[in-house]
Amino acid sequence: MRFQIVDAFTDCLFGGNPAGVVFIPEGSDYPDDETMRKTAAELRYSETAFLKRLKEKETSGKKVFQARYFTPAAEVDLCGHATIGSSFALLHDGIIEEGESFQYETLAGTIDIVAGQEGILMSMGDPVSYGPMESGGAVDLYHILGLEAHGQDLCVKDSDVRLVPELVSTGLIDIMTPIKNMQELNAIDPDFKALAELSDKFGVVGAHAFTLNAEDGLIHARNFAPLYDIDEEAATGTSNGALAYYLYQQGLVETDRVYTVVQGEAMDRASKITFCVRIEQEKPRIYVGGSAAVLAEGEIRI
Fold first, then answer.
1. Residue from 133, 93, 126 nearest 112 by CA
2. 2-124+290-299 domain in CATH 3.30.420.300?
């Protein structure tokens, strides 16, 4: 099986969030789940995407690929940066062309993807809010992150909006975790064991901490998912898709406008993730995008 290592959500090598990409040979089926998990563990990246082309489903003229995502610990329904990275790998190999639209079938549903001139843009799963964390859980969360509990008194600069932690999904459930400013965002020092236990308790992948109060006017974020053996990630498409919906619900982002999230700074792998909220069939639809760079490619001998 061919593989590539792709840095996603960046336009240069050694930035963004690296992902493994494994191409299932045409006419072959997926290896067994444990083999794919071990392959992901051997590649040692937070997620690896395994792609298989489904020619029998290409009835609309669009290419269709089945995508399965594995962390070193387990399979997950969806991974945003591995979707961006694997889509760029398809573009790099000439399997798709610039400007072409295609689809991924994932455990989280069908994803529409466009290979644009300035990067990959993908639709996310239907946005769902599971509601704010109860106050006790929120207090525990901030303590676990090494911060004083904000309770329900976290304000957005130049706004009367007060934000609290909330469980949101556009394919995977994360805790949207508002942080007062960049100083506190940089100061986060999680108790990873306790955060994994809290994540398991609430049925989430992890915590997506963010601040809107940075001096550069951009959104800055950090993402923690120790339940899945990922202490911190440099870029997370699904989490930032959920963040887009969270902020849309609060009236803090406009439709049809592109916003940028900077993530990975604490890991010295600064990433830029863009998102946009569009109204389609009278419902909000979330799009997340970014560029990528291929670092390495080769053969896996299984």
1. 126
2. no
Contact 46, 230 (CB under 8 A): yes
Q: How far apart are CA 186 and CA 292, in angstroms?
A: 25
**Is the torsion defined by CA of 78, 193, 166, 176 positive or negative?**
negative
Q: Does domain 128-285 have CATH number 3.10.310.10?
A: yes
* pLDDT tens digits, one per residue of 196-243: 999 999 999 999 999 998 889 899 999 999 999 999 999 999 999 999
Mean pLDDT for the stretch of residues 32-52: 96
Q: What is the pTM of this model?
A: 0.82
3 state DSSP class of 12: coil
Per-residue pLDDT tens for 117-165?
778 999 998 999 999 998 889 989 999 999 976 544 465 655 667 899 9
Do residues 30 and 53 touch, judged by C-beta distance below 8 A? no
The pLDDT assigned to 161 comes to 77
Q: Specify the 3-state DSSP secondary structure of 77.
A: coil
Q: Is 112 helix (H, G, I), strand (E, B) or coil?
A: strand
Q: Rounded distance, CA 294 to CA 56, Å?
A: 29
Contact 136, 144 (CB under 8 A): no
- Burial (CB count within 10 angstroms: exposed 0-12, middle 13-18, buried 19+), residue 199: buried
Task: Quote the pLDDT of residue 300.
Answer: 94
Cα first-last separation, the chain: 7
- Same fold for the pair 2-124+290-299 and 128-285: yes
Name residues whose C-beta falls within 8 Å of residue 87's C-beta, 6 or more positions apart in sequence. Answer: 96, 102, 104, 113, 115, 120, 122, 292
- Give residue for tokens 């809010």: 129
Report domain extents, the chain.
2-124+290-299, 128-285
